Amino acid sequence: MPINRKRIFRTAPPVPTTIYVRPGYNRVLAEEFEALKLKRVDLVKDKVEAHSQGDLRENFGFKAAKDAIRAVDRKMTALDRFVARNTFIEVDPSAWLNKPTDTLLLGHVTTIEKRDVATQRNHRFTFLVTTHGETASDPDSGIECLPHNSPLATAVLGLAAGDQTQVRLPAGESILTVLSIRNPTQAELGRLLSEIKPPEIEDEGEG
Known about the structure:
alpha/beta, 5 helices, 25% strand, two-stranded parallel ribbon, elongated, six-stranded mixed β-sheet, Helix Hairpins, Chitinase A, domain 3, single chain, 8 strands
């Protein structure tokens, strides 16, 4: 049966924390917020224009602009909360090429065995423990990105090769074994690290 990876490795709910990001991430956050502000200005113009066209009870353009403004406002509020509640530390991936591999750290490539306690099924994965928001995979090596603040990464960071830990992941109780730790190659980083993009922030609703 195929594994629902999104369920197993999804990012934990947002809480005040330190998030490690690649250089330029803070600039991307600021650019995203400015883009939302400009979009809101245009939507307000559309709303004013629609308002001038008559009966608001049947003015679908007015209603659409009003709903769109609310959606942008929610995104701006969510982004503002995301920035306010977290501390962002920029990390240069070039430092990952030769860092010590005694224990599992951000920037290491690791192979992990995951045993589901309920089913006793074993699954083996190879990950690059990487900065916030990375989700790429490398078809040449089979390595997947594992964001450092995901539930799985949080459970194994700091462990040595051969160490085990039992944790409750979103998919259930699991026993994790760190099988190996190594540095990535430059070619692997080139294939795995994608263009920096704004975060996908869940709508927290109004209120």
